[in-house]
Amino acid sequence: VSPYHNLAEIFLLTLREHGEAKTLDEFLLHFERLLRARIVEANRCLGRWMLERSRNGSESMRVACLVNDCLACGKAVDEGGARYNQTEPNFLGMANVVDSLAALEVLVFRSHEYTLAGLDRILSENFEGNETLRQRIIRELPHFGTNEKLTDSLAVRLTKLIADSCKGVKNQRGAELLPGTFSYLEHERHGKSTGATPDGRLAGYPLASG
Question: Is residue 180 scored above 90 in pLDDT?
Protein backbone atom coordinates (compact mmCIF):
# COMPACT_ATOMS: atom_id res chain seq x y z
CA VAL A 1 0.00 0.00 0.00
CA SER A 2 2.31 2.75 -1.24
CA PRO A 3 2.84 5.51 -2.06
CA TYR A 4 0.16 8.04 -1.15
CA HIS A 5 -0.73 10.68 -3.74
CA ASN A 6 -2.30 13.94 -2.59
CA LEU A 7 -4.87 14.69 -5.32
CA ALA A 8 -5.78 18.04 -3.78
CA GLU A 9 -2.16 19.18 -3.91
CA ILE A 10 -1.88 18.12 -7.56
CA PHE A 11 -5.17 19.93 -8.27
CA LEU A 12 -3.79 23.16 -6.74
CA LEU A 13 -0.58 22.81 -8.74
CA THR A 14 -2.65 22.43 -11.93
CA LEU A 15 -4.65 25.53 -11.02
CA ARG A 16 -1.48 27.52 -10.43
CA GLU A 17 0.36 26.40 -13.56
CA HIS A 18 -2.54 26.25 -16.03
CA GLY A 19 -4.72 29.25 -15.33
CA GLU A 20 -5.16 29.62 -19.10
CA ALA A 21 -7.46 26.59 -19.36
CA LYS A 22 -10.73 27.55 -21.08
CA THR A 23 -12.82 24.48 -20.22
CA LEU A 24 -13.02 21.83 -17.54
CA ASP A 25 -11.91 19.26 -20.12
CA GLU A 26 -8.73 21.24 -20.77
CA PHE A 27 -8.09 21.66 -17.05
CA LEU A 28 -8.50 17.92 -16.47
CA LEU A 29 -6.09 17.16 -19.30
CA HIS A 30 -3.39 19.21 -17.56
CA PHE A 31 -4.30 17.60 -14.23
CA GLU A 32 -3.96 14.12 -15.73
CA ARG A 33 -0.51 14.88 -17.16
CA LEU A 34 0.76 16.11 -13.80
CA LEU A 35 -0.76 13.12 -12.02
CA ARG A 36 0.74 10.62 -14.46
CA ALA A 37 4.19 12.18 -14.05
CA ARG A 38 3.83 12.03 -10.27
CA ILE A 39 2.76 8.37 -10.38
CA VAL A 40 5.68 7.36 -12.61
CA GLU A 41 8.28 9.18 -10.50
CA ALA A 42 6.88 7.90 -7.19
CA ASN A 43 6.86 4.36 -8.57
CA ARG A 44 10.54 4.70 -9.52
CA CYS A 45 11.33 5.95 -6.02
CA LEU A 46 9.43 3.06 -4.44
CA GLY A 47 11.35 0.64 -6.64
CA ARG A 48 14.65 2.05 -5.40
CA TRP A 49 13.51 1.61 -1.79
CA MET A 50 12.49 -1.98 -2.49
CA LEU A 51 15.87 -2.74 -4.06
CA GLU A 52 17.73 -1.13 -1.16
CA ARG A 53 15.72 -3.09 1.43
CA SER A 54 16.40 -6.34 -0.45
CA ARG A 55 20.11 -5.47 -0.54
CA ASN A 56 20.56 -4.70 3.15
CA GLY A 57 17.82 -6.89 4.67
CA SER A 58 15.95 -3.98 6.26
CA GLU A 59 12.44 -5.12 5.35
CA SER A 60 10.23 -5.82 8.36
CA MET A 61 10.13 -9.57 9.02
CA ARG A 62 6.48 -9.43 10.10
CA VAL A 63 5.61 -8.54 6.50
CA ALA A 64 7.23 -11.72 5.22
CA CYS A 65 5.42 -13.76 7.91
CA LEU A 66 2.04 -12.55 6.64
CA VAL A 67 2.56 -12.85 2.87
CA ASN A 68 2.34 -16.07 0.84
CA ASP A 69 4.98 -17.66 -0.02
CA CYS A 70 7.83 -15.81 1.72
CA LEU A 71 8.41 -18.32 4.53
CA ALA A 72 8.25 -21.29 2.20
CA CYS A 73 10.98 -19.97 -0.10
CA GLY A 74 12.98 -18.11 2.54
CA LYS A 75 12.75 -14.74 0.82
CA ALA A 76 11.27 -11.44 1.92
CA VAL A 77 8.72 -9.58 -0.23
CA ASP A 78 11.34 -7.21 -1.63
CA GLU A 79 13.57 -10.18 -2.48
CA GLY A 80 10.85 -11.76 -4.60
CA GLY A 81 9.36 -14.15 -2.07
CA ALA A 82 5.75 -13.04 -2.47
CA ARG A 83 3.30 -14.97 -4.63
CA TYR A 84 1.74 -11.70 -5.82
CA ASN A 85 3.63 -8.42 -6.19
CA GLN A 86 1.10 -5.75 -7.13
CA THR A 87 1.53 -2.30 -5.62
CA GLU A 88 -1.45 -0.24 -4.45
CA PRO A 89 -0.78 3.50 -4.73
CA ASN A 90 -3.41 5.38 -2.77
CA PHE A 91 -5.07 8.61 -3.83
CA LEU A 92 -6.05 11.05 -1.10
CA GLY A 93 -8.69 13.78 -1.25
CA MET A 94 -10.99 12.30 -3.90
CA ALA A 95 -14.09 14.08 -2.59
CA ASN A 96 -12.19 17.36 -2.22
CA VAL A 97 -11.13 17.26 -5.87
CA VAL A 98 -14.57 16.23 -7.12
CA ASP A 99 -16.18 19.15 -5.26
CA SER A 100 -13.39 21.48 -6.38
CA LEU A 101 -13.92 20.52 -10.01
CA ALA A 102 -17.64 21.20 -9.56
CA ALA A 103 -16.77 24.64 -8.15
CA LEU A 104 -14.61 25.40 -11.19
CA GLU A 105 -17.38 24.30 -13.53
CA VAL A 106 -20.03 26.45 -11.79
CA LEU A 107 -18.02 29.54 -10.85
CA VAL A 108 -15.50 29.74 -13.69
CA PHE A 109 -16.47 27.84 -16.82
CA ARG A 110 -20.27 28.25 -16.73
CA SER A 111 -21.01 31.60 -15.10
CA HIS A 112 -17.61 33.25 -15.65
CA GLU A 113 -17.96 34.93 -12.25
CA TYR A 114 -14.31 34.17 -11.52
CA THR A 115 -11.19 33.35 -13.49
CA LEU A 116 -8.90 30.47 -12.61
CA ALA A 117 -6.18 32.97 -11.70
CA GLY A 118 -8.60 34.93 -9.52
CA LEU A 119 -9.76 31.81 -7.73
CA ASP A 120 -6.16 30.71 -7.23
CA ARG A 121 -5.42 34.06 -5.57
CA ILE A 122 -8.41 33.68 -3.23
CA LEU A 123 -7.22 30.19 -2.26
CA SER A 124 -3.65 31.37 -1.70
CA GLU A 125 -5.10 33.89 0.79
CA ASN A 126 -7.07 31.09 2.49
CA PHE A 127 -10.43 32.74 1.63
CA GLU A 128 -9.49 35.78 3.74
CA GLY A 129 -12.03 38.49 2.92
CA ASN A 130 -14.04 35.94 0.90
CA GLU A 131 -15.99 34.10 3.59
CA THR A 132 -19.24 34.84 1.75
CA LEU A 133 -17.92 32.95 -1.27
CA ARG A 134 -16.72 30.07 0.93
CA GLN A 135 -20.13 29.75 2.57
CA ARG A 136 -21.81 29.87 -0.82
CA ILE A 137 -19.59 27.03 -2.03
CA ILE A 138 -20.34 24.97 1.09
CA ARG A 139 -24.08 25.63 1.18
CA GLU A 140 -25.16 26.06 -2.44
CA LEU A 141 -22.81 24.27 -4.83
CA PRO A 142 -23.10 20.54 -5.66
CA HIS A 143 -21.21 18.14 -3.39
CA PHE A 144 -20.20 14.52 -3.85
CA GLY A 145 -22.30 12.02 -1.90
CA THR A 146 -25.59 13.89 -2.20
CA ASN A 147 -26.93 12.41 -5.47
CA GLU A 148 -25.93 15.49 -7.46
CA LYS A 149 -25.66 14.73 -11.16
CA LEU A 150 -22.62 16.99 -11.69
CA THR A 151 -20.52 15.65 -8.82
CA ASP A 152 -21.51 12.03 -9.47
CA SER A 153 -20.37 12.34 -13.08
CA LEU A 154 -17.14 14.05 -12.01
CA ALA A 155 -16.44 11.28 -9.49
CA VAL A 156 -16.79 8.66 -12.23
CA ARG A 157 -14.55 10.71 -14.49
CA LEU A 158 -11.87 11.25 -11.83
CA THR A 159 -11.88 7.57 -10.89
CA LYS A 160 -11.34 6.57 -14.52
CA LEU A 161 -8.63 9.21 -14.92
CA ILE A 162 -6.73 7.78 -11.95
CA ALA A 163 -7.07 4.21 -13.20
CA ASP A 164 -5.93 5.22 -16.69
CA SER A 165 -2.96 7.10 -15.24
CA CYS A 166 -1.75 3.90 -13.56
CA LYS A 167 -2.05 1.75 -16.69
CA GLY A 168 1.23 0.54 -18.13
CA VAL A 169 3.21 1.50 -15.03
CA LYS A 170 4.78 -1.50 -13.33
CA ASN A 171 6.72 -1.84 -10.13
CA GLN A 172 10.28 -3.11 -10.00
CA ARG A 173 9.08 -6.72 -9.77
CA GLY A 174 7.10 -6.28 -13.00
CA ALA A 175 3.65 -6.21 -11.38
CA GLU A 176 0.89 -3.73 -12.19
CA LEU A 177 -0.26 -0.83 -10.06
CA LEU A 178 -3.73 -1.26 -8.57
CA PRO A 179 -4.98 2.19 -7.46
CA GLY A 180 -6.95 2.65 -4.25
CA THR A 181 -8.47 5.38 -2.08
CA PHE A 182 -7.56 3.95 1.34
CA SER A 183 -6.56 6.90 3.51
CA TYR A 184 -6.06 5.67 7.13
CA LEU A 185 -4.39 8.66 8.87
CA GLU A 186 -2.75 10.06 5.76
CA HIS A 187 -5.64 12.37 4.81
CA GLU A 188 -5.05 14.26 8.06
CA ARG A 189 -1.26 14.28 7.71
CA HIS A 190 -1.29 15.48 4.10
CA GLY A 191 -4.01 18.01 4.84
CA LYS A 192 -1.68 19.87 7.19
CA SER A 193 0.55 20.89 4.30
CA THR A 194 -2.19 21.43 1.69
CA GLY A 195 -3.52 24.90 0.91
CA ALA A 196 -7.16 25.90 0.74
CA THR A 197 -9.22 24.14 -1.93
CA PRO A 198 -12.19 25.34 -4.03
CA ASP A 199 -14.60 23.06 -2.15
CA GLY A 200 -14.42 25.48 0.80
CA ARG A 201 -11.83 23.54 2.79
CA LEU A 202 -9.38 25.84 4.56
CA ALA A 203 -5.60 25.46 4.44
CA GLY A 204 -4.19 22.92 6.87
CA TYR A 205 -7.48 21.11 7.43
CA PRO A 206 -7.67 17.33 6.86
CA LEU A 207 -8.50 16.08 3.40
CA ALA A 208 -11.69 14.07 2.94
CA SER A 209 -11.45 10.56 4.33
CA GLY A 210 -11.10 7.83 1.69
Answer: yes
